Write a sequence for this structure.
């Protein structure tokens, strides 16, 4: 699996004009009445890459993206699903799967500590108790390299899309069962992976029960499903939860059988794309500022948390009663 290091292609991801400082000009409705202070603004980065079955080459690519994020002044970098490995043959992922204290994750922990960045590592092939199934695990590392959050993907990608490949993730992957959010210097992070994006209940749970402010969605969308649904789903999750969404993406052809859509994005709580990669198939980062005053303003002016009708629809993802929802996050 290991091979020679490969150079990181020149990054061609961008901050949009919105991310450059005008993203608060959404509409007269969503504008904050007060200018944001520097303490309200935190810079984050989202990564896009084309992983292969070469674990060492993938690490070198990720290390290059980390260097770019540090240079840009980001506090967190989100890397895509399968950042460390994408196989070309059935069973390869099981063969390389490791526990979280194995050498692959240890290397990324060292990278986080050396760079001083928080790293969102979505879609790590974690070895589980069943030798025939691994976990698709999103690991959150702090700037000291400590594991701060572990989310095992709940929704497994078993699909047959017309014109696309037949995929059955459950053949070799076990589903998780826990909803995870983590406090960080960037804000409260809701941790998910790829196909989870199609299940709004999970994201409503993260917002209304777990108090998430930023949703992490590292992904490896297929080209066909990405063209149809990627941006729409991400913007919908941002709007309905009034959260920032950071969506790292696999991009381009990994091997003869597999191709990913790309288009890494950062979206604000109004649903505006504030950073994205210009080229859907390139390797690089996009950078934007998380503005907590904007988030609070949107939630105050459109208080959907307090308007939820538990008396009508009962046991929803956000809680079966007002008492089960943390109303501290409804301001």
């Amino acid at each position: 699996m290991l091979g020679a290091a490969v150079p990181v292609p020149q990054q061609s991801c961008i901050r949009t004009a919105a991310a450059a400082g005008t993203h608060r000009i959404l509409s007269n409705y969503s504008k904050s009445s007060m200018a944001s202070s520097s303490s309200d603004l935190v810079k984050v980065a989202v990564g896009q890459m084309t992983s292969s079955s070469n674990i060492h080459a993938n690490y070198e690519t990720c290390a290059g993206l980390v260097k770019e994020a540090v240079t840009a002044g980001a506090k967190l970098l989100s890397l895509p699903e399968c950042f460390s490995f994408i196989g070309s043959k059935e069973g390869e992922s099981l063969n390389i799967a490791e526990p979280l204290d194995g050498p692959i994750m240890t290397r990324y922990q060292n990278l986080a500590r050396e760079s001083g960045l928080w790293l969102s590592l979505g879609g790590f092939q974690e070895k589980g108790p069943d030798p025939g199934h691994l976990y698709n695990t999103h690991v959150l590392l702090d700037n000291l390299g400590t594991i701060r959050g572990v989310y095992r993907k709940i929704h497994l990608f078993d699909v047959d899309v017309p014109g696309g490949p037949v995929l059955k993730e459950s053949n070799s992957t076990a589903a998780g069962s826990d909803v995870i959010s983590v406090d960080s210097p960037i804000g409260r992070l809701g941790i998910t992976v790829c196909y989870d994006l199609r299940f709004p209940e999970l994201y409503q749970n993260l917002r209304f029960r777990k108090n998430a402010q930023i949703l992490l969605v590292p992904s490896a969308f297929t080209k066909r499903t990405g063209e149809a649904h990627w941006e729409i789903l991400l913007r919908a999750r941002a709007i309905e939860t009034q959260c920032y969404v950071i969506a790292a993406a696999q991009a381009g052809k990994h091997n003869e059988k597999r191709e990913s859509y790309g288009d890494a994005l950062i979206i604000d709580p109004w649903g505006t794309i504030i950073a994205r990669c210009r080229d859907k198939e390139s390797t690089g980062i996009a950078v934007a500022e998380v503005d907590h005053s904007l988030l609070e303003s949107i939630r105050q002016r459109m208080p959907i948390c307090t308007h939820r009708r538990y008396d009508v629809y009962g046991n929803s993802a956000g809680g079966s009663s007002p008492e089960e929802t943390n109303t501290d996050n409804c301001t």
User: Anything to note?
Assistant: Residues 253 and 259 are 4 Å apart (CA to CA). The domain at 43-330 is CATH 3.60.110.10 (Nitrilase/N-carbamoyl-D-aminoacid amidohydrolase).
